[in-house]
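It is worth pausing here to work through a concrete case rather than discussing structure prediction in the abstract. The textbook approach is simple: state the sequence, then state the predicted structure, then interpret. We follow exactly that order.
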Amino acid sequence: MPKIIVLEDPLTVAEHVELGVAYERRGELDLARREYEAALRKDKKYFQARVNLGNVYLAKKEHDKAREEYLRALELQPGDPEATNNLSWAAIYTGEGIDEAMGRMEGVVSAPGGRKATLLDTLGVLRMRAGRPEAAEEAFSLAEKLCREADSVPREGAQGGSPCPVEVRREIGLHLKELRKKFPSPVPPPALIK
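Step two, the predicted structure:
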């Protein structure tokens, strides 16, 4: 008589997420998705698995699925900066829900600890997409200022890496350039000679 073997998943939720992150770093998005889904089968309320699954969908340009996962993550941790930021990028890529995303990001950057260059950069892009160039310029300028300030302060016990990495500075610069190209400053009228 054949025996029935019941296999149990030996990995914990956190181990599935760690494995998913490893796959994601190697560009193996389908394997990463599988691991995040396995984590969520064990615990539907595991926040990081929701965010990471959204990230996989975003990378695969499955924006509606990404948006859904980020919204589920925000149900678990309302106002979370990472989930809000990534939800905002889903809106930026599709052009849908820009005003809603902008409202969420404004809430995040105005919360304690929310003044971070990456978050302000995202807010600037949202404002640019919403046709608010002055407000976008303000967000980008503050992001640049935070980078300069963070890099000028010596950090005790810091282990390499800038608080404002080169990639972040580059992104802010690219977004500022895009803003100025899309919304050129009006030419001031000529001065009157008396």
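Step three, interpretation. The first helix runs from residue 13 to 25. The chain has two domains: 9-78, 98-151+168-181.
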